[in-house]
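Possible regression after last week's pipeline update?

I re-ran a chain I had predicted before the update to compare outputs. Posting the input and the new output here so someone can diff against the archived version. Not blocking, just want to make sure nothing changed silently.
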Amino acid sequence: MTAHHLTLPSISAVPTVTGNQMNHGELYRLAKVWTIAIPLISYSYYFTSKIPKGIPRLLALFPVLFIFLLLPLNLRSFHLCGPTAFFLSWLGNFKLLLFAFDLGPLFSSPLPSFLHFAATLCLPIKINNNKSQIHRIGNPMVLCLKVLLLAIVVRLYDYQNRMHPAIVSVLYFLHLYLGVEIVLALCSLPAKAIFGAPMEPQFDEPYLSSSLQDFWSRRWNLMVPSILRPAVYDPTRMITSRIFGRRRAQLVGMVATFVVSGFMHELIFYYFTRAPPTWEVSSFFVLHGFCMAAEVAAKAALAWPSNIHPMLSRPTCLFFLMVTARWLMLPPLIRNGVVDEAIGEYYATAHFFKSKFILFL
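New output (post-update):
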């Protein structure tokens, strides 16, 4: 499916959504998922940490890794299934894989308290040691403004039939960025209380990215590269450097990291859609892996594109990201009704709080 044949959904009926996906049954299933997850986390902390690192500990953790992959299948709501899948099936499993070899954020000598271990395992958090960022990160006004902007974006969907499809796609991208950043920012609040320290931001103004390397490595969802780097990139580069040399091994490591990220995104999309994978999402990340490797190679050989003025490099980077995402990432979500469900959940939640407010008055 090409961008020219991308059919955007009609959401004219969204205000009448009743929110079946967000009912008490879904909240009960969410509680059930985390009721199962907590004993598994306890097992990882109290039992597997006593097993020698390496294959023996990895085998002991295998039941946890497997069950973490299954738990999101109990949920269907976009806003409950998505974060649960990201926290447990993706980040949680990769953190445990690193922990099996005494690596990653879960490992320290001696081990932290169970509460610290569980929070680090379940939440996309990292303690911020850069004092210059504390004020910017902890500014609640910025978060409130982004919540307001997300509400405006969702409301604009009512008028999408009057908009050009490209404009609607931009709304989808804003929706994705704001939704993910707000959820991750909210997750840092309990972590801040637990750790007594500010958390590093998960995003660093990705709309200012001047290159693919800048976007994926330094600005977008920074917990993911911080986990994939030691789990995929470093071992791949170390192994292939004996065959290809250090510089080429770096490029192979980049592509391998994007391949793994593509598979994990394909899994997340399966949790959303429950439809057989079409590998469009994986293709998006593989494409970006090769393009980023080519970009890094060009920088090393030609001092390009690092010498391009930001006024040109930033819009070019964003344009490439949006065009490839509209081509390969949006179609599975639109085709399987995930976009309609996500927007419907916003309206259902707003209706719920509005009705409670009226009863309170």
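Follow-up from reviewer: compared with the archived run. The longest helix spans residues 165-195. Marking as no regression found.
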